[in-house]
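ok trying this again, last paste got cut off
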Amino acid sequence: MERENSTVVTEFILAGLTQSQNIQLLVFTLVLIFYLIILPGNFLIILTIRSDPSLTAPLYFFLGNLAFLDASYSFIVAPRMLVDFLSDKKVISYRGCITQLFFLHFLGGGEMLLLIVMAFDRYIAICRPLHYSTLMNPRTCYALLLALWLGGFVHSIVQVALILRLPFCGPNRLDNFFCDVPQVIKLACTDTFVVELLMVFNSGLLTLLCFLGLLASYAVILCRVSGPASEGKSKALSTCTTHVIIILLMFGPAIFIYTRPFTALSADKVVSFFHTVIFPLMNPVIYTLRNQEVKASMRRILSQHMVC
């Protein structure tokens, strides 16, 4: 049987986040307010880092790219979800579903690798300060940036290639408010055990290993900065604590979703909602609120524009 010819599904029907109209209205209002407030904040972070000559250190270079990744990531799910809240029938085309799935994992995988790069940057800055300027030069930073974009692309394209080989002949109802690997695979009209296993290795195991590696690296850094208090050590401790918070917020839901067999649980939609809508908007904001230099620069930029 030719698998390419056996796919007759041209669209998927999204079950949505909830069937309750009152809860839908509440979530729609909260997400819209949250989206319109926090999303411009991410672009303000990017503008601040690019326009302030004092924020040229690799930490701020990567923070600006984190804000860009999260702003881009937030466009994948949230806007369509807001539109679907107002629609009686939530439909996405087969191609649209695959495209959404690709960019979801492309940007998500890139962000996961960016957090690893930021951990490496903090390790060199704190544990090898005399070699920091030599090792983390602009050429190295751009090479690391290229590597994480390439890594995110490879991570995503592997999953898309596996899904495109699956036949879809009905049903076409996705039990979620967006297209993701676990729900899409379950609709294939063939045995998907091997594909599910490959997906768990590609997303789940990789996410878990990165999570454990990041925790170990920050544990080493925190051990190095423990001791007599000083301004430099307090700053390093604050930065590392912020990074650990972001790691827990990002990797916790991802591990819950992708490291287990693709069976539906009641908590899946709530975890997915947090992972795809709330977290991408809050991530750079958490970094910024704990970074005095960026906050001071943002205040200067805002005051200059207000005076003008």
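PB: full thing came through this time. Strands lie at 11-14, 91-93, 173-174.
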